[in-house]
Amino acid sequence: MPTLEDVAKLAGVSGATVSNVLRQRGAASAATIAKVQQVARDLGYRPNLVARALAERRSPTIAVFFTNILNPFYSEFAFAAERAARRREHFLLICNAATPEGSLDTAYLNAVAGRLAEGLIVLGSDLGKQSLLAMLPAGVPVVLSTWEETDMYPTVPCVTVDFHKAGQLAGAHLAELGHRRIGIVAGSEHPEIVGDVAHHARLAGLRKSLAAYDVTVPSPRLQIGSDSIEGGRLATNRLLDLDPTVTAIAATNDLLAIGALQAAAERQIRVPDSLSVIGLTGIWMSAQVRPALTTIDIATASLADGSVNLLLDLIDDPATVPASALRVVGTPALVRRASTGPPAR
Amino acid sequence: MPTLEDVAKLAGVSGATVSNVLRQRGAASAATIAKVQQVARDLGYRPNLVARALAERRSPTIAVFFTNILNPFYSEFAFAAERAARRREHFLLICNAATPEGSLDTAYLNAVAGRLAEGLIVLGSDLGKQSLLAMLPAGVPVVLSTWEETDMYPTVPCVTVDFHKAGQLAGAHLAELGHRRIGIVAGSEHPEIVGDVAHHARLAGLRKSLAAYDVTVPSPRLQIGSDSIEGGRLATNRLLDLDPTVTAIAATNDLLAIGALQAAAERQIRVPDSLSVIGLTGIWMSAQVRPALTTIDIATASLADGSVNLLLDLIDDPATVPASALRVVGTPALVRRASTGPPAR
Fold first, then answer.
1. Which of B57, B82, B258 sits opposite A94 (nearest CB)?
2. Which of A15, A194, B254, B319 has its CA 20 to 30 A from that of A246?
3. Residue B287, Cβ density class (10 Å: 0-12 exposed, 13-18 middle, ≥19 buried)
């Protein structure tokens, strides 16, 4: 395998010059640049990333922290994030960062931060957010991604989607189909705490769009469940026990909505003939369940791209990024499938 | 944050001694060992993994290559592999390694091998296996994992599950329920090539157990599809068009089986009353579809643990591992759920 020294020798320049030219740094004449690039191409020279990292005392990796990658949203995020990182010559460590108690594993965070990885992306609202600021390692670039409350950490760069808008789209779709007796299944980090909702912005958006149609969602029709298929199934069963007259259910994410489909199937309620169900996220499973789930797609790949690029910008040059950078990426969009239709007369 | 030097100073020994004691290397007296351990505990000293890696010119990471992490089996593998790696102080890079043409991205493999990662786990039979040996980087520990043909690469360490046994269990379950007209949906890397099957061992196991009940599977009842939900749906539709008399379908993995459930739903065939469906793998989705899928669980976490541990053994000391190490881990087991039952009379 050709080395930097091989390129330098053949091009008749120093190793430092080769390095600078190939990294588009420093000053070199156009002739030198052309010569170095030609020789590197001819030799098939590939920069040794670890050698470079060793020399610069840095590691060309970034790490993404989430509760666990079994959640389909997180695996879709990881898929897109790895591709985005590669486009900028970085590699992706994945860190399943929930402790058995469900809070953020800060020991793990610190073991990775600034040592193995040049920067961190911390995802998800379910990782003990109340005290996150105190947990974040100092001096290491961190980007929060896909957080519901973007104003909670005004000093930490954040990439997110317009969840309020996503909620509005879901509510508007049901109302425009003619539904007026609408239930909501909302996800919570702590379903054991009465009224705890993780998806505030989505819920507010839902309520707002429904209010435009004079639809309110009184408490029996708002059920909160843990943020999973099983949580959605249980919450939907409670909702339908308390109010069997609802004709549509909006869930604040797809896993909950898939649970709602299961609850309907168990009760032999036909979807969408007797009950419409809409999700929010657009995980690939939403297209694969039966009936296929109508959902609001939040453009997960855009979230991952935006998060990786903001983090790498911070790593390259923190001065170019505002301390409280908030980037809202993607455009939530209705994906209409088989689980929604007009209410039965 | 306390450094190695802080521990050395307080313990009254050299930095090298601290390093050796904490890594259980070299020779030190019991008293020195006790002293160093005590001081390290008192100070809350955590070894700086990157500093260690820099000093040793190595990186405490391993990389796992698969087509892409969107496949639920791969995300479950990655979840367990990351945990197994952490237990041995390593971190996990994930690499979605399929090129657009579906072969292994060897440029990526080489960029990671021996530079960013100390070793590689290469998963799955769908990554251009014919020429894999030529693609593997020299001098870097590699473990193949979850390969169907364990005798294809006699010189490469491999961790796998007994897929033949898994196939047998699936066939025996259907036969014991009383099914005799049984169809098989088998996965292929190249469904466009007539007769190409990826899951040879599973298929052979299925055929063997069915033969014990004098059940054969003539070609209209064996349909091959691409290894996905959609592939399973299409193959099942072909099978049921050609032979609507089958009372049960065995699929060579869960994604195909979920596709078979979808095909049945579209045709309004009741599962399991009119058609039983069994999968193979045990991905978490198999418990979440409706009806819940009966499957053969191949113990994915054991595969991941076994793969990571074999790789780290190789990294620690190649001499302790036979060149052709083949480890068959886990025990395939029937998980009976709602998608199988006796044939209708």
1. B82
2. A194
3. middle
Would you say residue B344 lies in a domain?
A: no
- What are the φ/ψ torsions at residue A313 (nearest 5 degrees)? -65, -45
3-state secondary structure of B64: strand
Instruction: List Cα–Cα distances, A84 to A79, A90, A94, A237, B216, in angstroms.
Output: 9, 8, 14, 41, 49
Query: Is A69 at the interface with chain B, CB within 8 A?
Result: yes
**Residue B176 CB coordination number (10 Å):** 11
A149 and A272: one domain?
Answer: no
Q: Are B237 and B310 part of one and the same domain?
A: no
Distance from CA of A186 to the nearest CA of B (A): 19
Q: Tell me, yes or no, whether A52 lies in a domain.
A: no
Q: Give a yes or no: residue A54 inside a domain.
A: no
Q: Which of A162, A188, A167 is nearest to A295 (CA)?
A: A167
Asked whether the bond before B72 is cis by omega within 30 degrees of 0, the reply is no
* Structure tokens that stand for B276 in this block: 């039983």
Residue A21 and residue A137 in one domain = no
- Flag whether residue B284 sits within 8 Å of chain A, measured between CB atoms: yes
Contact A183, A223 (CB under 8 A): yes
Cβ atoms of B251 and B257 closer than 8 Å: yes
B158 & B140 share domain:
yes
Identify the DSSP state of A294.
B
The span from the CA of B144 to the CA of A337, in Å, is 40
- Cβ distance of B78 and A86 shorter than 8 Å: no
- What the block records as the tokens of A91 is 């590699």
Total domain count, chain B: 3
Please tell me the distance from the alpha carbon of residue A146 to that of residue A154, in angstroms, as a whole number. 15
Q: Which of A89, A100, A86 is nearest to A47 (CA)?
A: A89
User: Is residue A345 one of the residues assigned to a domain?
Assistant: no
Which of B64, B115, B337, B339 is the best residue to mutate to test the A interface, defined by the most A CB atoms within 10 Å of its own CB?
Answer: B115
Identify the CATH number of the domain in which residue A219 sits.
3.40.50.2300
Q: Are residues A66 and A86 in the same domain?
A: yes
| Alpha carbons B247 and B50: distance in angstroms, whole number | 59
Is this prediction's ipTM beyond 0.90?
no
- Digits of tens for pLDDT over chain B (345 positions)? 567 788 889 899 988 888 778 766 777 888 888 888 888 878 767 665 555 554 555 678 999 998 889 999 999 999 999 999 999 989 999 998 877 776 778 888 888 886 788 899 998 755 555 566 677 777 788 898 988 877 767 778 889 999 999 999 999 999 999 999 999 999 987 777 777 788 989 999 999 999 999 999 998 999 999 989 999 999 999 999 999 999 999 999 999 999 999 999 999 999 999 999 999 999 999 999 989 999 999 999 999 999 999 999 998 888 888 767 788 898 999 999 999 999 987
Question: A92 in contact with B at a CB cutoff of 8 Å?
Answer: yes
Q: Is B2:B44 a contact under the CB 8 Å cutoff? A: yes
Task: Indicate the SS3 state at residue B120.
Answer: strand
- Is A171 found in the same domain as A285? yes
Please tell me if residue B46 touches chain A, with a CB cutoff of 8 Å. yes
| Residues A27, A120 share a domain | no
Do you find a cis peptide bond into A343, omega within 30 degrees of 0? Answer: no
Residue in the structure block whose two tokens are 């802080």 = B6
- Token output for B65: 């290559």
Suggest the residue from B3, B48, B70, B121 to mutate for an interface test with chain A (most A CBs closer than 10 A).
B70
> Is there a contact between A267 and A246 (Cβ–Cβ < 8 Å)?
no
Amino acid residing at A167: G
Q: Does residue B194 share a domain with residue B182?
A: yes
Domain that holds residue A149: 61-161+300-330
- Positive or negative, the Cα torsion across B205, B207, B211, B214? positive
Torsion sign over Cα B126, B128, B130, B131: negative
